[in-house]
UniProtKB/TrEMBL annotation:
Disordered, as annotated region: 1-22
Gene3D superfamilies per record: MFS general substrate transporter like domains
Protein species of origin: Nocardiopsis lambiniae
Name of the molecule in the record: MFS transporter
Annotated transmembrane regions: 33-58, 70-93, 105-122, 128-145, 166-186, 192-212, 249-271, 283-304, 316-333, 339-361, 373-399, 411-430
Topology with respect to the bilayer: Multi-pass membrane protein
Domain Major facilitator superfamily (MFS) profile: 31-436
Keyword vocabulary terms for this entry: Membrane, Transmembrane, Transmembrane helix
Subcellular compartments: Cell membrane
Superkingdom to which the source organism belongs: Bacteria
């Protein structure tokens, strides 16, 4: 690692670094970049999050009808592998030298790999193969998401981060709603259930790659060749040197741990409370999602623009944790569809605020933005990946508390715990000092 890339860490406690890197004076980007970035992200989330919302639950129910907890193991295993893959892809992306630039080759390859994984799930003969397919799919689509975020770190100035992050937050919630509608319509055909979202994702990502130019990166040079030792060293950073980045990382982990605890089993919660089979609630999930789009629009778009205008991030992130917790508790104690829908709308509103403003906050406090954006985007992604890998594995412990053999799973306790983690995530971000 070159000295320019990673200054030596002194033996004594280093002086913390605050936001305000040279990358903060970037010129404003135009509408074409913003809209095609959002289109690519929409396609990616249709392909990736639709299976989490409904398609994987349907597939697991088909292949292992008596073992719905397998869904958590499938999702958790893939998320655990992302602990290693996401930072590695980010580091390699930073050092990619091609005529297409640093990010576009990974966008293209990731979308193709992700689609291949979804096809494996569609034709899988058992849950084990479903798990292998989901690992492949998440490797591919997470590569796309990571490099879309890298592109934002490369090109977005501080004055545009909140509003673009608001639009990103809206898209990341609206896309699964559209996917749920597709899932409800295609639930009886496993191949179409997974491959229609995959095709949408590939086409929209390629559209971004074709229409939005990226600087040729073949002229980039590095003082030290990337070997295994250097690669492993880039996984770590000193939290004392980057305290604000570290606190935001922890806040993101806590919030997404709570989110994953609840969202992984939403389909099963709805089925239990409505006394329906999970294969019959596609329309209900779609209805909840459509209502959630309104909440996300108000939360993500409104908070993103307001955080730029008011030059404030932390109050919005704290508020999102409080709001999400209220929604999760509403769902925990719900007994009928109206209250369930109200809880889903409230959690979506809180998630919209968090996804928009915390994303902008992450870009504000990101260290070494000019040279190692992909590396720190990958490290930030670890917060999501660790949460998404641990939460589904831990969830069955809460689901079985107080349950007699053959009885309903304890979704009430699960959603109470989810509310507590989301609230902690909102509180932790108050420790960030360089951003208001």
């Amino acid at each position: 690692m070159s000295k320019a890339e990673n200054p030596p860490i002194p033996d004594t406690d280093p002086e913390p670094l605050v936001a305000g890197t040279p990358g903060d004076d970037l010129p404003e980007v135009g509408p074409r970049y913003i809209w095609f970035l959002l289109i690519a992200l929409f396609g990616t989330y249709v392909a990736l999050v639709t299976p989490i919302a409904i398609s994987l639950a349907i597939r697991v129910k088909e292949l292992a009808p008596a073992n719905e907890e397998y869904l958590g193991y499938v999702i958790g295993t893939a998320a655990a592998i992302s602990l290693v893959s996401s930072p590695v892809v980010g580091i390699l992306s930073d050092r990619t030298r091609t005529r297409l630039g640093r990010r576009r080759p990974w966008l293209i390859a990731g979308s193709v790999l992700g689609s291949a994984g979804l096809f494996v799930i569609a034709v899988a003969p058992d849950v084990l193969v479903v798990g292998v397919g989901w690992i492949i799919a998440t490797l591919g689509w997470n590569t796309v998401i990571g490099n879309i975020t890298n592109s934002q770190a490369d090109r977005l100035p501080e004055a545009q981060r909140g509003r673009v992050s608001g639009l990103v937050g809206f898209v990341t919630m609206a896309a699964p709603v559209c996917g749920s509608i597709l899932g409800g319509a295609l639930a009886t055909n496993s191949v179409l259930l997974f491959m229609v979202p995959a095709v949408i994702g590939v086409i929209l990502v390629l559209l971004f790659c074709v229409i939005v130019p990226e600087e040729d990166s073949r002229g980039r040079t590095f003082e030290q060749a990337l070997d295994l030792r250097l690669l492993l060293s880039k996984f770590a950073f000193d939290p004392r040197r980057y305290p604000d980045f570290s606190w935001n990382w922890l806040a993101r982990f806590l919030f997404y741990f709570g989110l994953t605890l609840s969202s992984t089993f939403t389909a099963f919660l709805l089925a239990q409370r409505l006394r329906m089979d999970v294969t019959e609630i596609g329309a209900t999930i779609a209805l909840a999602g459509l209502l959630g789009v309104i909440a996300v629009m108000l939360g993500a778009l409104g908070s993103g623009f307001l955080s730029d205008k008011l030059l404030r991030r932390k109050p919005f992130v704290l508020g999102s944790g409080v709001i999400f917790a209220i929604g999760a508790l509403t769902m925990a104690f719900s007994t009928g569809l109206p209250v369930l829908l109200a809880g889903l709308v409230i959690t979506n509103f809180g998630l919209g605020i968090f996804s928009a403003v915390d994303h902008a906050l992450m870009l504000d406090v990101m260290p070494e933005k000019d040279t190692d954006a992909g590396r720190f985007v990958g490290i930030t992604g670890l917060a999501n990946s660790i949460a998404q890998s641990l939460a589904p594995v831990v969830a069955p412990a809460f689901l079985t508390v107080g349950v007699i053999e053959g009885g309903d799973k304890n979704y009430m306790l699960l959603y109470i715990v989810a509310a507590c983690f989301a609230l902690l995530g909102g509180l932790v971000v108050l420790r960030v000092r360089s951003v208001r």
